[in-house]
Amino acid sequence: MGVVLDVTVRENTGTGNAREARRNGQVPGVIYGGDEDSVAVAVKMNEVLKALNSGDFLGSMIELSHDGKNQKVFTKDVQFHPVTDFPVHVDFYRVTNKTLIDVEVSVNFVGEETSPGLKEGGTLNVVRYSIEVKCPAGDIPDSIEADVSKLEIGDAIHISDITLPKGAKPTITDRDFTIATIIASRAAVEEDEETEDVEAGDVPATEQTEDTDADEG
């Protein structure tokens, strides 16, 4: 387990109590979920900031410690002050290693250097930079790999082409949604259009004028 936070239980709830916690250098929060009642807690601001900077806090399973007892939770949400950008509230969801949760996982694209479409000057058009999956809280993947090494211009990679980590399933199940496509670059499209114009037999306006003059003579 990476992040462990010491929490204190707030006896009272409400806006006033939350403000008092913030004045005391703490971030108010709530623990909910499971078969237990919600519990209002507070965490030291510097500990929350340290956890945020670690990159293993928001959207991750962590542990909360209170009176020597540890509780595994999933950091469901963090609210930030609109001006200072400091955290002002945290929602923790009780979990076990096997609890199924919905979480956004970033997509890591591989094989770009060998993709025929990209080699020909195409562009990787990313439709989804992350995918929401349902997976055990103890096995949240760091990222999901999308291999584009065989894609030609005009090809696409869909969720059915992705090998998801064991135990993970996409939350969208009613369609084979697109992750990314290989599209022709704007320069290539314009070049093709110019080529089509020439092949169509278009004659510059100056040449048309000269032909007309010759006929009149």
UniProtKB/TrEMBL annotation:
* Entry-linked InterPro entries: Rbsml_bL25/Gln-tRNA_synth_N (IPR020056), Ribosomal_bL25/Gln-tRNA_synth (IPR011035), Ribosomal_bL25_b-dom (IPR020057), Ribosomal_bL25_C (IPR037121), Ribosomal_bL25_long (IPR001021), Ribosomal_L25_dom (IPR029751), Ribosomal_uL5_bac-type (IPR020930)
Record's Pfam families? Answer: Ribosomal_L25p, Ribosomal_TL5_C
- Top-level taxon in the UniProt lineage: Bacteria
Q: Where is the Large ribosomal subunit protein bL25 L25 domain?
A: 5-92
Q: Where does this protein have compositionally biased stretches of type Acidic residues? A: 190-200, 208-217
Locate the Large ribosomal subunit protein bL25 beta domain: which residues? 101-185
Q: Which GO terms describe its cellular component?
A: ribosome
Q: Which UniProt keywords apply?
A: Ribonucleoprotein, Ribosomal protein, RNA-binding, rRNA-binding
- Enumerate the residue ranges of region (Disordered): 186-217
What quaternary arrangement does the UniProt entry report?
Part of the 50S ribosomal subunit; part of the 5S rRNA/L5/L18/L25 subcomplex. Contacts the 5S rRNA. Binds to the 5S rRNA independently of L5 and L18.
Family membership noted in the UniProt record? Belongs to the bacterial ribosomal protein bL25 family. CTC subfamily.
* Function, in words: This is one of the proteins that binds to the 5S RNA in the ribosome where it forms part of the central protuberance.
Name this polypeptide is given: Large ribosomal subunit protein bL25
Q: Which organism is it from?
A: Algimonas ampicilliniresistens
- Gene encoding this polypeptide? rplY
